[in-house]
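Milestone 3.1: sequence recovery, worked example.
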């Protein structure tokens, strides 16, 4: 089936076209530049940017693929999780298109789409058999808005959340710490670069939620051992920087960046591998903007390799938010005979992973 996918959950307006597991086009317009001076995504600005960008992005995608709206078999749109106002723009546009063309509409989960996009990557599709993702698949999603470990038994029917952050997302921690160090937004790439000149062992920053006494038990439910916490780490970096300043010493920014980055990535990769081992997961797919991080790729490769887990990293344009990932999941739903959504659905900013479509 030929699927049109629409993404607007954060600061990227994405329209993608996918036929089965074949990527036809992936057009993305980002409002990231407009958020730079605020040091983070401002929801109202993102919503307005989606409004401005949607029609040009749609037209460009159709033109690039040489496809007319009439040729499309179904439309898929991100219905959550994400920023409520931003989601509303994509969902309203998708509903309007579905109404005008009479095409079925699929209201789909953004996080699950980050996994489904793996099917579009040539190297991964080659490993996938008969257009299906590998069996016993896990996913580690790390971006400015999320930090999750998922178990995917069937991309169209059975996806389970194993662990998630209880406070800041990993990318958000990079952005906040970069700001503390006087680096520009988005902080991830800046810290990644600076960290290469620093000593990752210079400062021992806390590894959040790795000490058993802080975790829930059967009697007193609390964070699970696959959950993450990065707000304590961010505070520790702030205290560390203040310490140097109070002593009148220059802040060793490269060492702080490297040590902070190592603390985040050590926990993320260790927990992802632990979750894989304990849940018979043999293939781990990486997704989200933080997947661009060079140290994350290296550490994940090392640790997965040592544990006998195959690591799959889709190309970067498919890791960050885009419309093709939405179309890819839409195609899987169509091919698996999942019923389209009732047009009365509303976007759900906290749509749970277990709900693959509405
Ligand atoms: P969502 O969470 O909905 O996917 P988002 O816009 O917050 O949306 P992305 O666009 O996927 O997320 O990724 C942006 C995040 O990735 C930012 O927090 C940025 O700092 C981080 N990032 C980008 N490159 C790197 C890198 N090399 N190292 C670490 N973090 C990075
Ligand atoms: Mg983004
Ligand atoms: Fe995303």
């Amino acid at each position: 089936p030929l699927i049109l996918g629409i993404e607007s959950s954060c600061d990227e307006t994405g329209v993608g076209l996918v036929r089965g597991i074949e990527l036809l086009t992936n057009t993305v317009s980002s409002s990231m530049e407009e958020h730079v001076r605020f040091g983070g995504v401002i929801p109202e600005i993102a919503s307005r940017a989606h409004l401005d960008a949607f029609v040009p992005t749609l037209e460009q995608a159709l033109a690039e693929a040489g496809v007319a709206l009439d040729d499309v078999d179904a439309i898929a749109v991100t219905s959550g999780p994400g920023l409520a106002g931003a989601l509303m723009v994509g969902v309203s546009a998708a509903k309007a298109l579905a109404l005008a063309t009479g095409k079925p509409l699929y209201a789909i989960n953004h996080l699950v789409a980050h996994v489904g996009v793996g099917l579009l990557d040539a190297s991964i599709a080659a490993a996938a058999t008969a257009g299906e993702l590998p069996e016993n698949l896990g996913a580690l999603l790390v971006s400015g808005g999320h930090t999750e470990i998922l178990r995917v038994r069937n991309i169209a029917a059975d996806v389970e959340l194993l662990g998630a952050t209880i406070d800041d997302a990993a990318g958000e921690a990079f952005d906040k710490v970069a700001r503390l160090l006087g680096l520009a937004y988005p902080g991830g790439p800046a810290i990644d670069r600076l960290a290469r000149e620093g000593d990752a062992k210079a400062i021992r920053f806390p590894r959040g939620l790795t000490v058993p006494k802080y975790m829930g038990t059967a009697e007193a439910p609390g964070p699970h051992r696959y959950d993450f916490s990065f707000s304590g780490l961010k505070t520790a970096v702030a205290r560390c920087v203040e310490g140097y300043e109070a002593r009148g010493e220059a802040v060793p920014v490269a060492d702080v960046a490297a040590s902070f980055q190592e603390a985040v990535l050590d926990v993320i990769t260790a927990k992802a591998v632990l979750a894989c081992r304990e849940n018979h997961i043999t293939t781990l797919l990486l997704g989200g903007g933080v997947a661009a991080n060079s140290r994350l790729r290296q550490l994940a490769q090392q640790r997965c390799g040592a544990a006998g887990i195959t690591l799959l990293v889709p190309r970067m344009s498919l890791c960050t938010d885009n419309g093709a990932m939405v179309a890819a999941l839409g195609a899987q739903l169509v091919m698996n005979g999942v019923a389209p959504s009732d047009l009365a659905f509303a976007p759900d900013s906290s749509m749970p992973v277990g709900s693959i479509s509405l």
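The first strand starts at residue 2 and ends at 7. The two ends are 20 Å apart (CA to CA).
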